[in-house]
Amino acid sequence: MTRYPNKSGTTSGFDPVRRKFLSAVVAAAGVTLAPGIVLYGITKPSSALARAPDAAASSEVRWAMLIDLGRCESGCDECVTACSMENGLRGHGRKASDAQWIRKVTISNPDTGVSKSLPVMCQHCAEPPCVDVCPTGASFKRADGIVLVDKHTCIGCRYCMLACPYKARSFIHETLEDQKPHTPRGKGTVESCTLCVHRIDAGGQPACVEACSDTGGGAMLFGDLNDPDSEISQRVAHYATQQIRADLGLDPGVRYRNL
Amino acid sequence: MKPTIYSEIDGRSTRFYALAAILGVFVLSALICAFYMEHYGHYVTGMNNQVVWGMPHVFAFFLIIAASGALNVASIGSVFGKTIYKPLGRLSSLLAVALLLGGLTVLVLDLGRPDRLIVAMTTYNFKSIFAWNIYLYVGFIAVVVVYLWLQMERRMNRYVKTAGMVAFIWRLVLTTGTGSILGFLVAREAYDSAIMAPLFIAMSFSFGLAAYILVLIATCRGSGRELGDVVVRRMGRLLGVFIAGVLYLTAIQHLANMYAAEHTGVERFILLDGGIYTLLFWVGQVFVGGILPLVLVYRQPAGGLQNAVRRMAGASALVIIGGFAQLYVLIIGGQAYPLNLFPDMQVSSSFYDGVIAAYTPSLPEIGLGLGGVALAGLIVLFGIKVLRFLPSTLANKAIDPHHELTANGS
């Protein structure tokens, strides 16, 4: 089951707008009738797939992304803007050391001149080299496949940045202010795309995927690869998809179509 | 042969205090540099998201590699039984620990969060070669301190060979670990190679002996101890073997990489059109750090002691300069060359994909690195003042009873 609002018009299992509306009506009625009883209920995550705050991430799901280059336009960077807004990433006018969690990469074939544009971010590998090399275990992979950095144990050695084949990580080169409460960041530590883990745990989807769907080309699809009925699994099963540097055997969770 | 007599240096001369003060100023400057970097963040350095390891790592790697190599002098005496090297063992052990402490200090002070050293010491990911190295470094210091004690305590001298063997094996494992920090990085074309381990071992033999020769000459000169040309020439010849070893493994490293079509890009970058990296490779690493010291070591006239000492000191200094060039090319050049996410494609982005990364070492980085060298110097200086590390004499007849016999007979 996926929570991806499908642009092609086919249904994908449920209508999130209708669900949100119904939840709101039920919650409003509940609060009016029996506040004490339902108060706990409405503070719980809204989606059936959301993770309760005290529940561990489950290996029964593998969160992943499928990006269709056929729908990704070269001039569009809605995903990049959305990521920066969501996670409070602001440049300091120092391009070489400013953090970038997701970037648009233009690739062109020198023989044919064919050019394509695609977003590249942490690929959330099943066998992440950043996790292997991290001396303190600050780089870790959650059971549901999301690769994260524990900001409390990262010592800022940057070895993971050397090990990552995707150039997905950034080092925080300066003091940060006005951070988003859901995205803790800190000077002297390494960070990368969290797949908007705070949204996923609340039953949502990554900001980049949402923005791509709302105002971009609808090229990004988010879902659970372990669920054979999810739209992402269906598409991966039916269409040829690629992983960047698949030869390294890292099994990235981010897949591309028409690469 | 008479037993070797060791003694402290007097350490009350103006020269001694001047040297200590100069080294102290460098150490203090390094602390200020580190504080400056940590206070403002690493943007004040030349490092960035492309070149994440900069000048501090060149210094730290050099010092750590040289540390394990400096211990070889002791190993040659106690493990391989070469009598002439035995009086040199104590200083060798002291220098090894001093260089390692200097290197580790630089490494720690360059961390994004040096205040979390306790986290690094208590939270381990045992799959990480970096974590193994923390154990190897701390263990090295412990093993060498015990080895040193066994050398210095006459009643325990019988255990020296065993301890020396343990220390020798430990140092080989340690340098294997240091080389593998780069060798295990599969995504980086300049690093991903098993040859990094033996290459680093050869580099450690060479850099460590070069550092030892310089320290030995300086301490003997400074404390007015006699230093015969027998020991100097002998170490010089050994240095030549190590220099040749490094050149050989470097040649294999690049030949093997060039043979694979996928790596010709990075090889072309380092060897042909990499600008500063190509220049440092051919002029710094190969000529200044390889060919020139080989000529100095092997084509020496039969002349006097002073000439031999000067030549060996010169060769050692060149090896050290070449060593820094080699590590700069390897560590920084290897990062400057872009990651190859899309083989055979032309790539561009806002995050420097597909372009050679720029890096200019900053003053705080260099200051921090030099502070590590100065700290090692200060430890040695303090060590030889308070304990008996230095033999009273290294005159030819004192270290080689057959010397005059051979000299007369020849």
Layout of helices and strands:
The complex is a heterodimer of chains A (259) and B (410).
Chain A: H1 16-33, H2 35-43, E1 63-68, H3 78-87, E2 102-108, E3 115-121, H4 129-133, E4 139-141, E5 147-149, H5 159-163, E6 170-171, E7 190-191, H6 197-201, H7 207-214, E8 220-224, H8 231-238, E9 241-242, E10 254-257
Parallel strand pairs in A: 1-10
Antiparallel strand pairs in A: 1-8, 2-3, 4-5, 6-7, 9-10
Chain B: E1 6-7, H1 14-40, H2 55-70, H3 72-78, H4 89-109, H5 117-122, H6 129-152, H7 160-183, H8 196-222, H9 229-259, H10 264-273, H11 276-298, H12 305-336, E2 346-349, H13 363-386, E3 390-391, H14 396-399, H15 403-409
Antiparallel strand pairs in B: 1-3
What does this structure look like?
- Chain A is an alpha+beta fold.
- Chain A has one domain: Alpha-Beta Plaits (2-Layer Sandwich), CATH 3.30.70.20.
- Chain A is built from eight helices and ten strands.
- Chain A has helices at residues 16-33, 35-43, 78-87, 129-133, 159-163, 197-201, 207-214, 231-238, and strands spanning 63-68, 102-108, 115-121, 139-141, 147-149, 170-171, 190-191, 220-224, 241-242, 254-257.
- Chain A has a four-stranded mixed sheet. In chain A, strands 2-3 form a two-stranded antiparallel sheet. A two-stranded antiparallel sheet of chain A has the order 4-5.
- In chain A, strand 2 (102-108) and strand 3 form a beta hairpin.
- In chain A, helix 1 (16-33) runs antiparallel to helix 2 and helix 3 packs across helix 7.
- The longest helix of chain A has 18 residues, at 16-33.
- The radius of gyration of chain A is 19 Å and the shape is globular.
- The two termini of chain A are 26 Å apart.
- With 410 residues, chain B is mainly α.
- Chain B has one domain: Formate dehydrogenase/DMSO reductase domain (Formate dehydrogenase/DMSO reductase fold), CATH 1.20.1630.
- Chain B is built from 15 helices and three strands.
- Chain B has helices at 14-40, 55-70, 72-78, 89-109, 117-122, 129-152, 160-183, 196-222, 229-259, 264-273, 276-298, 305-336, 363-386, 396-399, 403-409; strands at residues 6-7, 346-349, 390-391.
- A two-stranded antiparallel sheet of chain B has the order 1-3.
- In chain B, helix 2 runs antiparallel to helix 7 (160-183) and helix 4 (89-109) packs antiparallel against helix 13.
- The mean pLDDT of chain B is 93.
- At the A-B interface, strand 2, helix 4, helix 5 and strand 6 of A face helix 5, helix 6 and strand 2 of B.
- Strand 2 of chain A pairs antiparallel with strand 2 of chain B.
